[in-house]
Amino acid sequence: MASAHSGHGRACPATGGPATRPAFRRVAGTVPTAASLLSALLSALLFVLLGLPGTPEAFAASAVPHTLGAQGISGALDASGAGTGASGAPGVPGGSGDGVTGASAVTPPGRVVIIGVPGLEWSDLDRERTPNLWRLAGEGGSASMSTRAVPPPERGITCPAAGWLTVSAGQRAGAPGTGCEPPRAPEATPGGGASVPGWDELTAFNATTSYRPVLGQLGGLAAEAGLKVAAVGPGAALAAADKSGKIGKYAASVEELRDLSPYGLIVVEADDLARAWTGDALAADDVPATMTTQARREAVARADRVVGTVLDRLPPSFADGTTPASPTTSTAPETTAPETTAPAPETTAPGTRAPETTTPETTAPGATTPEATPSEGTVPGTAAPGTEATVLVAGLADTSVAPHLHVAIARGPSPGGETYPRGYLTAASTRQDGLVTNTDLTATAIGLLSLQSPNGVVGRAWQGGGASEEPVAATVEKLADDDLASQVLREVRGPFFAVFVAVQILFYLLAAVAIRRGWGGSRALTAIQVVAVVSGAIAVSTFLAQLIPWWSLPAPMVWVIVTILGFACAVAGVALSGPWRAHPLGPLTVVAAITSVALLADVMTGSALQVNAVTGYEPVTGGRFYGFSNIAFAVYAAGTILALAGIAQWLISGGRRTLALAVCAAYGGLAVFADGWPAWGADFGGVPAFLVGVAILMILVSGGRVSPMRLVLVGLAGSLLIGAIAVADWMRPADQRTHLGAFVQQVLDGDAWTVVGRKFGAMIGVTVGNWSLSLLTLVALAFLFLVLDRPSRWGASALGRAYTLAPALRAGLIGALACSLIGFLMNDSGIAIPAMALTVAVPLTLAACVRAVRLSPPTTPGRSSVPAASTAPPSP
Predict the structure, then answer these.
(1) How far is CA 608 from CA 541, 600, 611, 617, 620, in A?
(2) Has residue 844 got a pLDDT over 60?
(3) What angle do CA 822, 825, 826 make, to 5 degrees?
(4) What does the alpha-carbon distance between residue 240 and residue 222 come to, in Å, rounded to a whole number?
(5) Backbone angles phi, psi at 238, to 5 degrees
(6) Cβ-contact 578, 594 below 8 angstroms
(7) Secondary structure element (H or E) that encloses residue 169, with its range
């Protein structure tokens, strides 16, 4: 296989037809109305919601990270979650609002050293070639970093300048131009400072993007708080500059900066990889080609030496959190600090430091206790002596023609005060162990400096995911494997969907011939039923396939198909082997139930099955990291509604209509709630669509009629429900909000139309641009209404026969179709939602129709062997 930088090779270190008649008749006095059950359900959900807002404990599960493991969809499939920008809600750190983290009110401001190495990937690390990075990985927390920013036109990569500007703003940012022009050297200003050339141009360009980042957030907050800020290198200057583009102290190298102790925030650029990349011959579009393996290794080694230089120059209090001993008891050189210091600001307005609480330090035995408190030995604008520095290493950007996951390492105190443990980093923005984002880096630095974060910073502070005893090599290999999975996914997704769409369309054509013309007889019908059940299980199997690391096997395109088919056949085997197989809706119900339960369990346990799945989301793209993606929602909603239809049919056949409605209300309510609840599905646009689908199912099962007024009322109820969930999320502490709460804040700030406009544009773009899924949707609907719902060689329409034997199928199919249509209109994945919903609904409906045809005798009259006598009166 090719190298990880040129391909995916591993480079690790050592529905419903028209109604023919009412489906059910309501028995007066014995069956509650669907409206009453829905009202009760909504009342219960709102009661729960109103009892939880503002209590962080009620949402504790939302902050619990889950393992990324070795498990995405670009374009249509990765559009979900893009509405809030980078990774989550604005705030502190990384939440929306103006609050501070719980620890910031009592934790003194720390020192922060950010070392940016644009392009650094985990597969670059090696014990011998990169000893300093290897050491840091062994002393702190590690993660893969999603570096999505504003890319160059027609590109999906993050250029180094865009990566640095994203750190500056705490929101996805970019630079003008069609390629990846290196950052320009700053212009010196009196006093050792500098200003970023073209800053006004950068600010104006980013104001025109859909994310509207505010450049200079990080450096401006630190400077306004009285902290000294230093930048080393042109890229670092972009990140450390204030809102006017100025940096207090600038140096071209670490050696030139000399003493690091006066600074509260130091940003260092190790641009060896970026320079090696942009130093190659540029392509016609100004995007450099991929580096050779040798050139990359040499550049990484040089960058590692820069990291080592920074670590070596950190003063003792920076490096280990200890204060140099008193000169009366130590042979260390004496250092005299000024005797006075400016008092710490007492205000906690945005951009200021929180009040400090200082306690006298305990000296070592035999040492003389100094007369002054720690603050008395502090240089104005710096942190207290003895404050350990937190070193943050970040890959920041891409240095290849394809986007990658990059290195993130944190060593030292975290924003909460505890030291980052050896193991994996996580963040509330991703809820995945071993995965953080570039905007999280800004939030982390702001939290470490005990500053308040403005709404424009959308990331969340890096957190330790728990101590780990595994060797550094195992951690590095696992994180490199995560990037490998993303790279392989990018290569196989397009071919997979081409094969998937082609096979589905071919199957519909062959099934149409067999049903309409009767070719193949009963054997053909049997084969069609089996294939239809397998086909209906394909959607959920694309997620179950993540249980096997197919991306690390040779010929991954073959293995992903084999793995998905294996799971689909296993699910179909269960559906076709039990006593339920004789009922028209038996196999349909089993497959749909497995689909619903599997995806429900997945979002309740961290959404690991969706990460890097061919129908899920990928961390590299950074559209969403947890909850229901739009594609998963479509599959989940269709499976849930069809499963409930099958269960309702079974209960009603036994004379238990009331119980059937109760089951539909209970599980349907849970499914809708799970879709929208921030700790699980966190899906904004899916809840109204899903609730309408479940409501239509229940109304038809109860024997009622679906009127426009009822649909409007149910849709309004769905909107109120998701609105209540979003407000409940917004009422949580700012650093715990999801994108649902973030959207409420954006409404309050007047920025909601920006998000809505971006999502609408994405929906139109996906629908117009993704012709294969659009074609699949049209073919599936044509097959449903022009083949299954029309008379055939076997007599009456196959769909009509299925409705006769199992009336609940009509209710479920109409509900699923309505849900997918509304979902199409309300989500940014556009045509992908009905396409994937029909992938579940149409094959399973076909299986039910085939079984119904085989169970009922032909209705076409047989040909008479004797000519019929004339009915005309005899001639005279």
Answers:
(1) 14, 12, 5, 10, 15
(2) yes
(3) 85
(4) 9
(5) -60, -40
(6) no
(7) helix 160-169
Distance between CA atoms of residues 245 and 383, nearest Å: 24
What's at 556, amino acid-wise?
A: P
Question: Which position has the token pair 């009336």?
Answer: 807
- Asked whether the beta carbons of 438 and 484 are under 8 A apart, the reply is no
From residue 752, how far is each of 215, 325, 741, 758 by CA, in Å?
20, 55, 12, 10
Give the span between the Cα atoms of 632 and 629, in whole angstroms: 5
| Phi, psi (deg, nearest 5) at residue 16 | -70, 140
Tell me whether residue 301 is exposed, middle or buried, using C-beta atoms within 10 angstroms of its C-beta: 0 to 12, 13 to 18, 19 or more.
Answer: middle
Query: What is the pLDDT at residue 48?
Result: 38
Q: Could you tell me which residues come within 8 angstroms of residue 483 by beta carbon, excluding any fewer than 6 positions away? A: 4, 121, 122, 123, 144, 404, 405, 620
Phi then psi for residue 388, to 5 deg, are -75, 140
* List of E strands, 229-339: 229-232, 246-247, 249-251, 265-269
With H, G, I as helix, E, B as strand and everything else as coil, classify residue 406.
strand
From 365, 359, 370, 461, select the one nearest 415 (Cα to Cα): 461
In DSSP terms, 116 is beta-bridged to: 269, 394
Structure-token pair, residue 202: 């950068």
pLDDT value at residue 108 = 53
Contact, 429 vs 437, CB < 8 A? yes
User: Mean pLDDT of all residues in the chain?
Assistant: 79
Q: Do 341 and 382 meet the contact criterion of CB atoms below 8 Å apart?
A: no
A 10 A CB-CB count for 772 gives: 17
Decide: 669 and 675 in contact? Cβ < 8 Å: no
* pLDDT tier at 617, thresholds 50, 70, 90: confident
- Structure token pair of residue 524: 């053909």
Please report, for residues 120, 181, 299, 300, 553, the alpha-carbon distance to residue 277 in angstroms, rounded to integers and kept in the order given: 12, 11, 9, 12, 30
Whose tokens are 């006769």? That residue is 804
Strands 389-394 and 405-411: antiparallel
Q: Cα dihedral sign for 309, 310, 315, 319? A: negative
Q: Which residues pair with 387 in a beta bridge?
A: none
- What's the CA gap between 391 and 250, in Å, rounded? 19
Q: 729 falls in which pLDDT band (50, 70, 90)?
A: confident
Residue found by looking up tokens 């997945």 in the block: 602
pLDDT at 863 over 90: no
Whether residue 460 has pLDDT greater than 50? yes
Q: How many other CB atoms sit within 10 Å of the CB of residue 52?
A: 17
Task: State the pLDDT confidence band at 758, using cuts at 50, 70 and 90.
Answer: low
Q: Average the pLDDT over each of 283-292, 445-454, 609-618, 665-674 and give the range with the smallest value.
A: 283-292
What angle in degrees, to the nearest 10, is found between the helix axes of 217-224 and 438-448? Answer: 0
Check residue 91 and give left, alpha or beta (phi > 0: left; psi -120 to 50: alpha): left
**Average pLDDT score over residue span 209-231:** 95
Paired strand residues for 114: 267, 392
Cβ(484)–Cβ(4) under 8 Å? yes
269 three-state secondary structure: strand
Cβ atoms within 10 A of the Cβ of 859, count? 12
Classify 418 as helix, strand or coil.
coil
Residue 655: what residue type?
A: G
In whole angstroms, what is the distance from residue 38 CA to residue 473 CA?
A: 54
- Residue 146 CA to residue 327 CA, distance in Å, equals 47
The identity of residue 640, as a single letter, is T
Whether the CB-CB separation of 369 and 378 falls below 8 Å is answered with: no
pLDDT score of 286? 62
Which stretches of 806-831 are DSSP H helices? 808-826
